[in-house]
Structures are given as C-alpha cells and as structure tokens.
Design brief:
single chain, mainly alpha
Length: 87
C-alpha cells in the first residue's frame, strides 16, 4: 500500500536546491580552471616576450661590439673605413 507523504513539497524543494547548488559549484569550478588557464597563457606569452627581447638586445649589442672591434683593427692597420651606416 502506498502512503501519501504530506511533506513532499519540502522534499522536492530540498532536491531542487541541492541540484542548483551542485550546478553552481560546478560552474564556479570550471570558471576558476579557465581563469587559471588564461593566466598561465598570458604569463607564458609575457615571459616569451621578455626572453625574446633579451636575446634580440644581446644580439644587437654583440653585433655592435663586433663592428667596433673590426673598425678598431682596421684603424690600427692604417685603413680607415669611411662608409656611412644607415639604420
């Protein structure tokens, strides 16, 4: 025999609120994971930019030092290179 539960609206409300809470927590978890991923990508791109800038500036400084060294050697040999360097 089936007995009618007079508190069924409260039970249904409790189940619905549990579903809503679990859905909200799942959405917040997904959002936090996406924010962590976005932050990691932005940080990685920033680090890549800084490292590539360091490599480029080191290369330019090395090229300038090489150019000065070559001109100094030519000046010691008595040959003066009077070419114009344009950027």
């Amino acid at each position: 025999m089936f007995f009618f539960n007079p508190f069924w609206p409260l039970t249904a409300l409790r189940i619905a609120s549990l579903k809503a809470t679990s859905t909200l927590l799942l959405l917040l978890l997904i959002k936090s994971n996406l924010l962590r991923l976005k932050g990691g990508i932005i940080g990685g791109l920033l680090a890549l930019t800084l490292i590539s800038g360091l490599i480029v500036s080191t290369t330019v400084a090395g090229g300038a030092a090489y150019y000065i060294f070559q001109n100094k050697n030519k000046a010691e040999d008595g040959v003066i290179d009077a070419e114009v360097v344009s950027a």
